[in-house]
Specification:
This protein is α/β, with parallel strands linked by helices. It has one domain: Alpha-Beta Barrel (TIM Barrel). Helices cover about 45% and strands about 15% of the residues. β2, α3 and β3 form a beta-alpha-beta unit. The longest helix has 17 residues. The two termini are about 15 Å apart. The mean pLDDT is about 95. The chain binds pyridoxal-5'-phosphate.
Length: about 220
């Protein structure tokens, strides 16, 4: 972002977001599809936590931004089995752990890599073709095994509201997710994107994942 007025506008939007969020709810700046210049401008304004969904894109950006020192990178994309090692190496927090098989694989690889990522289990509490996630039932059923996986640090739940719900229905869904996290004693709730963050915050979100509402339209 060589253009100083664009950087100033981004700084203003960041401050706006920080003002909207209650204490205990943090902004995850979703930088997928955004150039590194936009990330630099956000870092200059004080943002440290960024969400990316594609491993290759993220590692290229991390390398380009290495001069900024360590940033707090969160993986929010579909976790593919063959990308787990790369994700473990490049992300300290993973929001999208969506199956027991992947959790086992992630735990094995994290141990090999001598890492202990913070993980949020992705849950799918409404039918949503094409989206992954544990049902509440599945999560409860394998909870003791998930909790016992030594190289993982379970910290929360993540959910994505399906398109087409009304605000009240979204809030109900987010409240269910919050109740499930409470039942499992998980403190973090990754809920809410640019279009539905208000309902997510009302239901107790601790991480809103905001891309277009912060950076504008994605380039890719
Ligand atoms: C892209 C993405 C976001 C951000 O979406 P916006 O609508 O641009 O805020 C949040 N969460 C996940 C999982 C995403 O893939």
């Amino acid at each position: 972002m060589a253009d100083p007025s664009a950087a100033a506008a981004l700084e203003d939007r960041l401050h706006w977001w920080w003002r909207q969020l209650p204490p205990g709810c943090r902004l995850l700046a979703v930088s997928k599809g955004q150039p590194t210049g936009a990330i630099r401008a956000a870092v200059a304004a004080g943002q440290r936590s960024f969400g990316e969904s594609r491993l290759q894109e993220a590692t290229a950006k991390q390398a380009e931004l290495a001069d900024l020192g360590p940033l707090d990178w969160h993986f929010i994309g579909r976790l593919q089995a063959n990308k787990v090692r790369g994700v473990v190496r490049h992300f300290a927090t993973i929001h999208s752990l969506d199956s027991l098989a992947l959790a086992r694989r992630l735990a094995r690889i994290a141990a090999e890599e001598e890492r202990r990522p913070a993980v949020l289990f992705q849950v799918k509490l409404r039918p949503d073709p094409g989206k992954a996630g544990f049902s509440a039932h599945e999560l409860r059923r394998c909870w003791s095994e998930l909790q016992g996986l030594p190289a993982l640090r379970p910290v929360g739940l993540m959910t994505i509201a399906p398109l087409g719900l009304e605000a009240g229905q979204r809030q109900e869904l987010f409240a269910e997710c919050a109740a499930l996290a409470g039942e499992l004693a998980l403190p973090e709730l990754s809920m809410g994107m640019s279009g539905d963050w208000r309902e997510a915050v009302a239901a107790g979100s601790t991480w809103v994942r905001i891309g277009s509402g912060l950076f504008g339209a994605r380039l890719s």
